[in-house]
Amino acid sequence: MENYFADERGFYGEFGGAYVPEILYKCVHDLQEAYLPIIESAEFKAEYHALLKDYVGRPSPLYFAKRMSEKYGCQLYLKREDLNHTGAHKINNTIGQILLAKKLGKTRIIAETGAGQHGVATATVCALMNMKCEVFMGATDVERQHTNVERMKMLGAEVHPVRTGNMTLSDACSEAIRDWCCHPADTFYIVGSTMGPHPYPDLVARMQSVISEEIKWQLEAQIGRDYPDYLIACIGGGSNAAGTIYHYVNEERTKIVLAEAGGHGWQTDHTAATIHKGTTGILHGSKMLVMQDENGQIQEAFTISAGLDYPGVGPMHCNMAKKGRTQVLSINDDEAIRGGYELTRMEGIIPAIESAHAIAALSKLTFKKDDVVVLTVSGRGDKDVETYLKNKAMAGEYGYF
Length: 401
Fold this sequence. Notes:
By secondary structure, this protein is α/β, with parallel strands linked by helices. 43% of the residues lie in helices and 18% in strands. The protein contains 17 helices and 14 strands. Strands 3-4-14-9-10-13 form a 6-stranded mixed sheet, with helices on both faces. A 4-stranded parallel sheet has the order 7-6-5-8, sandwiched between helices. The chain has a two-stranded antiparallel sheet with strand order 1-2. Strand 5 (108-113), helix 5 (117-129) and strand 6 form a beta-alpha-beta unit. Helix 2 (42-56) crosses helix 4 (90-103) and helix 9 crosses helix 11. The longest helix is centred in the first third of the chain and has 18 residues, at 22-39. The relative contact order is 0.16. The mean pLDDT is 96. The beta subunit is responsible for the synthesis of L-tryptophan from indole and L-serine. GO terms for molecular function: tryptophan synthase activity. Belongs to the TrpB family.
């Protein structure tokens, strides 16, 4: 059986590892040594699951989408991560990492954010645990995700607009790592996705695996079997996708479909479709598929979605895509906007634009009527209402206006 999980060095096949500056070596090595004994301890599990239940509001519902099932000729279930406290799946991970940071004696938390959902989730748990919080966010994203910026500030976090590069998620990650290099002793970096040096890709995937853990028993309760025919999720760095598929990677009866951000089309220079367009490189401490030029210079990722415009993708997903375990679709901006309006009008659920990419993938697949399809709605669309309104002409072509 193929192994799709990290080995002892943090590699997923040829991808992964830990490529860090010398000043961070001890920090990262100590975390590698400590994280599994801590998160597998009975004490950690009890505190973590209590907070997921009573604070986050888990389990998140598995909702049968009747009208969209009829439209696409399948049995479509939506995993409602948008109903979590803070409005996305990100809180599953930040709860776990803040508990880990406390066990390690850290007193200061930093994070990167794109759409602001991870930043809000980090600021939330820092307020909960009375920890100092600083969030790095590209200046472009600060402008287009203003509401989430104000939420972070209201929660007590200091938000640092990053004005290098194209001022989006990748630049925020780079700035957070620079800060970490300056404060290695007291600082814990809560990484928001399945990226970064080992052990972060594995750690984040484990924290998010509660999604597929719940899907298994929820399906068993609703349809009498614990696996779907299809799993669908959007993918940028890869955290909600990793959580959605974690307990199904070796379930051969389940097809895995991931939707990445095509922007204006993956063949163009205005795209974030890294699995389609990327080549092997090292970014933010990990070997992964990266959008880069022939000289290894990182190319700007372009998409309407602030949460999917990362020019790399987590090593777990790189390995699975290379080995053919996942089918990856490139979803263009106009298709994502249409998908968001479709879910809104047909099921009364306004999804985050990130999640709308997964919805749009449905139109590119052919199902049998009895196929069970589980699609993760990774976040709610409150933060994206202005973007939806500015681009509603794209949805008008489909009869929504």
